[in-house]
């Protein structure tokens, strides 16, 4: 069976979606006492990445199923930069020239505080990465952007991106130092502190001025078929 591509627009298929942890100053400050403990005894020096595989991808308007335990999902809403030209060991100064555009991502996860092992069971469930429409162009300033999350018509969370540990350009430069990013790949700027929780029956709306609004609902997971 041939797998159909997930098209971001008429000319670009979605490649690989990479999430970024520990990219907000407030998160690093909160966790800094843990970084001094074994086995690491220091804060990470390179970007901490994870994957949102194909089974997690969902479009605007999707209904995302959440298991009864814990019966809620954390909405790690973020901005993603979309690669337009292959990027290998790019400089910070030239990095954004490899970006085709930007989108909103609802990087969903079951609530957890695990930063030391891949949280695959929590972050990689079916439908756990709704993506908004790609807005092309390099003129968007992510660090000046404000993202809001509304649940059932009420704004419950707001975040900015001025306090990133790595700016979008710096993040792209550091990631491509050790791996190539290809057209259609998405690099998320990372979760923010205090992200809200959503439960079955909730409708989530994520907005960033200048980007396409992203909406999805949350539903109770049904029992597996025999």
Automatic annotation (TrEMBL):
KW Cytoplasm (keyword) present: no
Keyword terms, alphabetized: Hydrolase, Metal-binding
Pfam families: FAA_hydrolase
Domain of life: Bacteria
Gene3D superfamilies hit by this protein: Fumarylacetoacetase-like, C-terminal domain
Domain named Fumarylacetoacetase-like C-terminal: residues: 16-218
Any one GO MF annotation of this record: 5-oxopent-3-ene-1,2,5-tricarboxylate decarboxylase activity
Protein name (Swiss-Prot/TrEMBL): Fumarylacetoacetate hydrolase family protein
Organism of origin: Delftia lacustris
């Amino acid at each position: 069976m041939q797998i159909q591509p997930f098209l971001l627009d008429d000319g670009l298929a979605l490649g690989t979606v990479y999430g970024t942890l520990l990219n907000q100053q407030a998160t690093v400050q909160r966790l800094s006492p843990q970084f001094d403990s074994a086995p690491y005894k220091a804060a990470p020096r390179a970007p901490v990445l994870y994957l949102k595989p194909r089974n997690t991808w969902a479009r605007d308007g999707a209904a995302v199923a959440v298991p009864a335990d814990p019966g809620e999902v954390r909405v790690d809403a973020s901005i993603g930069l979309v690669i337009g030209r292959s990027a290998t060991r790019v400089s910070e100064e030239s990095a954004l020239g490899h970006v085709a555009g930007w989108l909103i991502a609802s990087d969903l996860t079951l609530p957890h505080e695990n930063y030391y092992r891949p949280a695959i069971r929590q972050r990689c469930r079916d439908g756990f990465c709704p993506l908004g429409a790609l807005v092309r162009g390099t003129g968007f300033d992510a660090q000046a952007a404000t993202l809001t999350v509304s649940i059932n018509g009420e704004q419950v969370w707001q975040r900015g991106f001025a306090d990133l540990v790595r700016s979008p350009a710096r993040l792209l430069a550091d990631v491509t130092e050790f791996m190539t990013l290809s057209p259609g790949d998405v690099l998320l700027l990372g979760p923010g502190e205090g992200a809200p929780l959503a439960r079955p029956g909730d409708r989530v709306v994520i907005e960033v001025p200048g980007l396409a609004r992203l909406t999805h609902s949350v539903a109770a997971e049904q029992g597996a078929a025999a």
